[in-house]
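Reproducibility note. Readers wishing to regenerate the assembly model reported in the main text can use the exact inputs given here. Chain order matters: entities are listed in the order in which they were concatenated for prediction.
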Amino acid sequence: MSDHIPTTARSLVDLAASTPQQDLFARVLDQRSRPNPYPLYAALRRQPVSRQADGTWVVSGYDEIAALLHDPRISSDMRNAGQESAPGAEKSFILRDPPSHDRLRGAVMARFTPAVVESLRADVRRITGELLDAAGSQGRIDLVDEVAYPLPVSVICKLLGIPPEDEARFHVWADTLARSLDRDPDMTQEEADQIQHAADALADYLTQFTAERAKNPGEDLISGLLTGGAHTEPLRGDELVVTTRLLLIAGHETTVNLITNGMLTLLRHPDILTRFRREPALVVPMVEELVRYEPSVQFRYRATLDDIDVGGTTIPGGSAVVLLLAAGSRDPHHFDQPEQFIPDRTPNEHFGFGGGIHYCVGAPLARLEAHVVLPELVRRLENPRLAEDPPPYRPTAALRGPRHLWLNVDRVRP
Amino acid sequence: MEVGVEHRLSPTSTAAGLPDDGHVVIVGASLAGLHGAEALREQGFAGQITLVGEEPHPPYDRPPLSKRVLAGRMSADDTGLPQREDFEAQWRLGTAAVSLDRAAKTVTLADGDVLGFDKLLIATGARARPWPKVHEAALGGVFSIRTRDDARALQARLATRPRRVLVIGAGFVGSEAASVCRELGLDVTVVERSPAPLVGALGGPAGSAAGRLQRRHGVDLRTNTSVRSLEGDGVGRLRRAALSDGDILDVDVAIVALGAVRNVEWLAGSALSVDGRGVRCDAYCRAVDSAGQPDDDVLVAGDIARWPHPLFDGELLAVEHWDNAVRQARVAAVTMLHGPVLQHTALPAFWSNQFGVNIKSVGVPARADQFAVVQGSVENSAFVAAYGQQGRVIGALAVNMPRALDAYATMITNRASFPPVARIPDAPDPIRVLDTALPPLGQAAPDAGRPQPDEQRAGARPSL
Amino acid sequence: MRVVVDLARCQSYGQCVFAAPEVFELTGPEVLEYDSAPSDHLREQAERARAACPVQAITIGPAAGPTRDATAAPPRSAAIDTVGGQR
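Running the prediction on these inputs yields the following C-alpha cells for the assembly.
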C-alpha cells in the first residue's frame, strides 16, 4: 500500500478500479486517500459485503448497512471479534450492547432534553459571533482553528457545566482523544501514549469535578447524571467519567467536521453558495445533505455475535465488521444522483448520524450548531475563497475532516 | 422510499392504456384515495382525476381519532391530511358511489350523476361494524369510532365525565379507547369474547401481556365475556348493559369496537370477485373478476383490497393498516400508468399507542402458531417477540422497542427459520417458544355469535 | 398547514421533538404525539423536523381537499347513525 495515490478524481477512479476488492479498505485507511475516499467506496459497493485481506468485513451497500445497524446480532463491543480493549478501561455506551448500553444512554437522554439543547442556541450564536469577531482583522482565516474547532468544545463545556477558565485544557484533550475513536493500524506508540495521557488527565479532572458537583449540584448535564431521574439511575465513578468523555469526544470532532466540510462543500459549489445567501432557510435540508454527502463519521466498527446473512453473503460470527456509512449514503440503489450535492434533496434518509439503537445522541445539538453557524459564516465572510483544495486532512479515516481550512476573504463583516 | 422505486421504473414499460388526457375516477376520498391521486400526479399524469367520497370531509387521518382526539388534546377538525403539493382534481365529497358498470366504464353516484372513467381506483375502505341489535345501537350514548364525526361526538360525551364507559371489543380501537378513558380518569369496563385483548391480531401470549397492562392501568377487563344486551331509559338513553357473566353494569356510554365491515355493497353488480372480506385483486392491484381474470382498468387499494402476497402464499391478505393504504395506492397508480410492472410486496406493518406504551408489528402475527420473546422482557414492558409458522418467522411484535423491529422485517423477507437462534445480548435465556393459540387466562369460552371470527384471525387490524 | 407522520415507519428516534418541540412530543418513552394542524408560525420548526426525521416519515403540506380550508365542510353530529358506509 505504499505506491503513489493520485489526487485527481479520474485517476482515483482508475486506481479504485484496479485495486483488488480485498485491498480496498486498506486504501481507505491510507492517509493519502483522505481528501477523496469516495471512488474507493464506489469500488467497494460493487460487492456490498466484502471480506478484506486482514479478515475484516466491509459493508458498503445501503440496504446491507441498514440491516446490520438494526440487527441485534451485531455488537459494538469489539471484544466479540477478538479485539482487546485497553486494560481496565470502562467502556462508553457507544462501545456497549444492551442492556448496559440502554441504561447508560438512557441516563444521558433523560438529561439531554429538547429544552436543554434549545437553551444552547443563544450560546452558539454568541460564541460564533465572538470567534468571527476575533478572526475579523485578517484577510486569511483558518476556519478550523479559528471557528469550527473552538466552538463545539465551548458548547459542550457549557452543556457539561465546565468553568470557562478550564476550557482551554478541554480543547487539548478533545483534540488528542479524538484519535482513540479510530482504529488506525498505523498509529505509533507515541500517539497511543499521548492518547492515554490525555485520557488520564481528563479522567483526573472529571473525577475531581464530579466529586465537587456531587456536593454542589448545578443545572448542568453532569449534575443531572449524578442525580439520575425518574426512570434512570444516577451515574457514578468510572461510568460518569467515561460517559462525559464520550460526550466530549464524539460531540466535538464530529461537529468540527460538519462545519468545516459544510463550508468546503459550499465553496466547491458556488451556485449553491449563491442560492444559500439568498435563501438562508435552505440550511435545514442542506445540513442533512451535508451529513449524507460529506459525513463526519465515515464508518463504525462492529462485531458479529453469530453468523449473519446479509446481501447474499454470510458473515461468520466473531468477525470484525466495518459499517461504511458514508458509502451507504452514496449508494445509487437508494439515492438518485448520489454523487451530486443537492441541498434540498427530498427524501434524504441518510446514515449521517448512524441508525438503530446507536443513532447519534448529539444529532440535535450538531444540527442546531450547523443551522446557526453556516448561515452566519456565509453572511459574515465576504468573498470567501479556498486557499488550497483539497485542504490538509486529519489522520483519522473514521472521523474524516480537514485539519485546516484556509480561506481568503476580503473581510469579515461585522 | 417507494417513490424512488417508481422513479426507477424503466421508461420502456408498456403504457397501460391510460391516455394523457384520460380520466381517472377514485372512489373513496380517504388515505388510499388521496395517495393514489398524489402518486398519479407525481408520476406526471396530466389528465383528469375525480375523487368521490361519501363523507363530506376532505381526506383526514383516522389513527388520532381513537387517541389524541378522544382525549381532547386535538380537535377532530384538525385531522385533515396534508397533500404533498397542490394537485388538480375534481372532488365529489358527500356523495357515495352506488354502482359500477365495468362494461360501460361508468360509476353512478348517489345523486344520479354518472362518471365515465378510463381507470378506476376502488378505495372505499371499511366502516365500523355496528352493534347488531338495531334498537340498542340507536340508544343515546352508544358510539363507534371510525369517522371524524364519530370521534367528535364521543369526545364531547366523554368530556361530560360519564360514570362508567363500556368498551365492547378489545381489539386495537377498543383498547386505545379504554386507554384514553383511563387517562381521563373515567371508569371503564372492557368486554371481550376472546381470552385476552388483541388476541386476534397478536395471539394469546401477547394478548395476555396486553391484558395485564390494561388491568395495571385500572381497566375492568372482562375476557371470555360478551354483552348480552344494552338497555335504555325512558327517553332512549343508554343506562345499563347485561353481560354474559351475569353482571348488570350501570353505564352511560358504550363504545362499540367490533372491527370493520368493508364498503363493498356498491360493487354488487360489477361481476368482480367481491364478498364481505373485500375485493380480490392481484399483486399489481388489478381487481379480479368473478372468472378470476384481472381487469386492467379497475384497481383496488387500502382496507378493501385482498391480494396474494408473495411471501404469504395461500390465503389472500387483507390489511387494514395506514401504511398499506398508502403503499398499495401508489402501486395501483403505477399499474394505471405503466401496466403490471410493480408488485405490492410491502410487509404489513402496524402500530398502536395505548397505556403509555408503543406497540409496533410487522408481518402477519395473526397467522402464526408460535410465539417467542427474543429481546427484552415482558415484565419491563420493553420486548420484541417473533412469530413463527411452519418453522419460519412470519411476524414480529415490538413493545417499546421500535428501533429493533427492522431486523425482524428482514428475517420475514428472508424466510428465516423460527425460532430465530442467535446470540443476542438482551435475549431471554432460554428463549421459550409458546403456542399463539394458548388460552392465556384459563379456558376460552365458547365463541358462538362472535362477529366474523375469520376476520379477527386474519389479523386485519382496523386502521384506526 | 397539516402534518402527518407515518407511524409505521417512525422508530421514535425523537429528532422531531428536538427540532419542533411545539409540534411533536414524546408522551411515553417511545410514544410520539404531534399536532397535526399547527399554526403557521410553527412552519419553520415543522420543516426542521421533517428534514431531521431519520426515517423521513413526516409529511407537511396544505390540507388536502377541494379547498384549503378543511373546516369548510358542514359538521355532522350524532355517532351511530353516521356509521353507515357506502350503500
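We highlight two features of this model. Chain C has one domain: 2-64+77-85. The longest strand of chain C covers residues 2-5.
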